């Protein structure tokens, strides 16, 4: 019939078209399984980032190194002294006198070895002594006041260099201070202390007094007394910037005129030599000092703190 395909013909057509249909399906499956190629475009190259700086280690994690100070010249612990009220007019305090502390000079009356000096200061500590200044002693003598139970004044005459080189460090180690009686025209001279050294000692608590301008016997010529006593005080005060309140007579020698002049030229007191530790208003311009001589053993040194030395110390001019 027109418009219809016979079954046999239709079957033949299908058989003919079947390979074509299968080929088309394979192509479709392959296309679906294979990605479509694209062109690779590399990204624009940039510089690498800076290497990050490591964060600092917290300070709490950093070990602390503590340096231990060298024990040399380290002050020894000193007990706090007890103080007692003292009436004016009469005080009992040993005033010790040294000239040289040295091992380089042959031992004589004026030279105490370092070993003996240290031993003497250790004995003072053992006995409970506390150093005070000459101004402290004079102030209490005039006005009364408080003093430690066992006060002592340690003085050094002339201004010899070995006092700075040797005695100063040992005194500092013992927590002691002293009084320096300086010959004014010897500042900056060889073998004598210089201004900067004296200022260092002043800063450490030491006191400065005058031992005259040129170290001569003032009793032999009254015409030089004004220069020796007044000018020396003015020169020392100008050089060191501190008041100079007390005077030490050269060779321990004085007379009425020399002592009166010391008062007239502005000194609070003056010191000489003697065998007593008792000081009164009447001895204000000749306070007794106990000289520590080079050949004294420890027993004789301890005797200076309380009893007279026999034979009595005499004022002998130094060579």
Q: Structural class of the helices, strands and pairings? A: alpha/beta
From the 3D structure, determine the CATH topology of the domain at 90-304: TIM Barrel
Mean pLDDT: 81
Question: Which segments are poorly predicted (pLDDT under 50) over 5 or more consecutive residues?
Answer: 1-7, 19-72, 309-314
Instruction: Sketch the major β-sheet.
Output: 6 strands, parallel
Instruction: Give the number of DSSP strands.
Output: 14
Residues in helix, %: 25-40%
What is the class of the domain at 90-304 in the CATH system? Alpha Beta
Radius of gyration over alpha carbons? 49 Å
Number of helices: 8
Shape: globular
- Distance from first to last alpha carbon: 171 Å
Which sequence of SSEs, written as H and E, runs from N to C?
HEEEEEHEHEEHEHEHEHEEEH
> In percent terms, what proportion of residues is strand?
15-25%
The CATH superfamily of the domain at 90-304 appears as Glycoside hydrolase/deacetylase
CATH A-level architecture of the domain at 90-304: Alpha-Beta Barrel
Model description:
The structure is a single chain. The longest helix has 27 residues, at 7-33. The protein is 33% helix and 15% strand. The protein has a domain at 90-304: TIM Barrel (Alpha-Beta Barrel), CATH 3.20.20. Strands 3, 6, 8, 9, 10 and 14 form a 6-stranded parallel beta sheet that branches. A two-stranded antiparallel ribbon has the order 1-7. It has helices at 7-33, 114-126, 134-143, 161-173, 195-203, 225-240, 256-264, 298-304, and strands spanning 83-86, 90-92, 95-98, 100-101, 111-112, 130-131, 145-148, 151-158, 179-182, 207-210, 246-248, 269-271, 278-280, 290-291. It has 319 residues and is an alpha/beta fold.
